[in-house]
């Protein structure tokens, strides 16, 4: 049976099939993945508000089914629970949830499910400092197995960019892309490993009507390729609304409609809710859900069984009169309950149609459904820019969930590869973000010369030892603040992209954190060395290599430790709180550094603070480098120089018995503890945002 013939036959019925003549574009180079049907039953989501006893129920025992090959819209009034439902279905939110979620009829294993799905959040979380091509290269390097050849990866990139209309912009920085292009790039990045189930939170937000149309067309084409595409959407135009295959509508945390978009008006009409002529059905269902036509929510929820019923094209409408009758309701549940039946009951029957095996089965409704399906199939084949992906229908759902490669690994690449890719990307950002780099360099050189001029040639002057100690302390202060603030500011800005990429299984948190941690160390080290060389020479500190190395190592460690403090603060809190708290938290460390008050003068009950004050170890390290190890007497150009002998200075500072090795060891220990703490805070932050 050729396509044209079937379409003519279909033309006799009520179906309308639009065929556009362009050749379908196919994604042939992507890895094969199984189709995925997602179902949820009696899903309840509660959160605690304020006091522990105050529990708010956001989703109230909703059920539903989202099929492969369909574009599903989750709609509802503001606050109805759309984002919450999406977050639960993606696995982004897990605590506070009750009910069951099944994948291809089997209880969902979240870890396996996340390998099959991707979640494209509302605000395209992209790194602005990469070109489209580079962003795609990073995605392929992280999301495709390492064994994939470079040529294959490039082919995948080219194919996706071509299909999504981004190949013209492959050299454009992502920050310069338009809103619609950013959205397409977000999709392109996730499409690399061909996830069979894709979730989108408000994919059309911020787009004009033409971009909205393009975006939804793209999602529709992805669905036609066999994927399960689910997105939340506020209030689409009638034209956009028609493009969705399946509609799931929420009102006040309950399901008021589930079924094909084409049957919405008919279904509402059967419940005495007549959609006015020329009125957008999408607007009508929202208005009904908002209560603009009276309080119909309860009636709709009961009729649709809170999502257990599905108003499918080609299936009879549930008989309304029977819904108040418990016995009939149970009967209805039996015939519609996909948990008890084979998960793909209807669809599997439909799937045989093009082969002609089950073309007639005796029931008109099913027959209509089969014809509709066949029409859809033909429309798919002829559609404009159909993004097809060969999917393998697998009998064993478990095999499917483990991925077609059968690999139980969480990530496509090893942690070492992830580390290298993220490190290279971060170094590229640093190179691109030259303003910040030059600013940092400029600040270190400028302040170095300023300090050099202020404390010029005082290092060997016995009458200026107190000024020299001020210079040593200022070094600590300067290096601490410059290193700390950079990470406090930059780390939280990375967070949204980290959340997205980590959730979508691009890399492990460990690899990411190691790469981020390592990436800034060389820059900080270079800036610190430049600063120390300038001030050390200008202030005439002792020109002995071993003293210089001790001085430099203390300064470097202070910079690294302060950077780690910035990481902890940046990982644990937002920029506003961090910018305030970090300097305030540093005050006790500065006070107990040994510069303002010597150790013996500190009250015993406060002395413990000196042991955790990294500034103390740094200050002590530079003081020892300058005055200990049998330094010769300082020059004295006055009648009496109290600090002419370096040991006097050490005595005044209570540092006669201080051990430089211990200072370095303490700084190293604090560094390690802080880096581990920053990682733990980051992990906690990622978990708590969910
Ligand atoms: N953690 C939370 N604590 C308290 N209430 C919450 C929490 N998360 C969500 N809610 C509430 O749950 C309801 C549903 O929120 P949700 O974000 O899912 O709505 P929505 O349908 O996506 O709304 P919108 O279309 O406006 O984005 C809202 O009333 C919201 O205030």
Automatic annotation (TrEMBL):
The chain crosses the membrane at residues 437-456, 468-491, 512-538, 550-572, 579-602, 664-682. It is a multi-pass membrane protein. It is found in: Membrane. GO terms for molecular function: ABC-type transporter activity; ATP binding; ATP hydrolysis activity. Gene3D superfamilies: P-loop containing nucleotide triphosphate hydrolases (3.40.50.300). SUPFAM superfamilies: P-loop containing nucleoside triphosphate hydrolases. The keyword Transmembrane applies. Keywords: ATP-binding, Membrane, Nucleotide-binding, Transmembrane, Transmembrane helix, Transport. Residues 38-277 form the ABC transporter domain. PROSITE patterns: ABC_TRANSPORTER_1 (PS00211), ABC_TRANSPORTER_2 (PS50893). GO terms for cellular component: plasma membrane. Belongs to the ABC transporter superfamily. ABCG family. Eye pigment precursor importer (TC 3.A.1.204) subfamily. This is ATP-binding cassette subfamily G member 4. It comes from Bicyclus anynana (Squinting bush brown butterfly). The lineage of its organism: Eukaryota, Metazoa, Ecdysozoa, Arthropoda, Hexapoda. The gene is LOC112048745.
